[in-house]
Amino acid sequence: MPFAMIRHFLRTEAAGGVVLIAAAALALLCASTPLAPFYDDLKALPVVISMGGFGLAKPLLAWVNDGLMALFFFLVGLEIKREILRGELSSVSRALLPVLAALGGMACQIASNCDPHFASNNDPLVGWREQATGGPRARSGAIA
């Protein structure tokens, strides 16, 4: 019986968002209580993947930041592609507002990361390059 309820919940559209919010709330709770040292130890836990003579060792936090976030943005990119090709964003008039909102969000990030007072290396656009080029996560979404 409980497995049927869990299966039914996981098939709903909101399941991913609910799980994400619950995980974020749990992480905030752990980081803000006496459990913080244990939470920090968990984030620093070494995770090793090895195959033959090749091995990759990183802390759990790095695996989450690099691997799972890249996977997340790849899936988001696939969802956006589906919506553009066959869904709600398949016409230009319906896609215009979300596209402009995304461009505005990128522009705000770029503007907030540019140093108008010139950084110590005299480069006023120190934050522009990271936002303009994106990271591996954004590129994986664009590939989709």
Describe this structure in words.
By secondary structure, this protein is mainly alpha-helical. 67% of the residues lie in helices and 8% in strands. The protein has helices at residues 2-10, 15-31, 36-43, 60-86, 92-113, 128-133, 136-143, and strands at residues 46-51, 54-59. α4 (60-86) runs parallel beside α7. The longest helix is centred in the middle third of the chain and has 27 residues, at 60-86.
Topology overview:
Blueprint: H1 2-10, H2 15-31, H3 36-43, E1 46-51, E2 54-59, H4 60-86, H5 92-113, H6 128-133, H7 136-143
Antiparallel strand pairs: 1-2
Tags for this model:
144 residues; mainly alpha; 7 helices; 2 strands; extended
Q: Can you describe this structure in just a few lines?
A:
67% of the residues lie in helices and 8% in strands. With 144 residues, the chain is mostly helical.
Largest sheet: 2 strands, antiparallel
Model regions low in confidence, pLDDT < 50 over at least 5 residues: none
Q: Please tally the helical runs, counting DSSP H or I stretches of 4 or more residues.
A: 7
Class of secondary structure makeup: mainly alpha
Beta-strand residue percentage: 5-15%
Helix/strand order, N-terminal first? HHHEEHHHH
Mean model confidence by pLDDT: 80
Tell me the overall shape.
Answer: extended
- The main sheet orders its strands as 1-2
What Rg do the Cα atoms give? 20 Å
Number of strands: 2
Helix fraction, binned, reads: 55-70%
Task: Give the termini distance in whole angstroms.
Answer: 37 Å
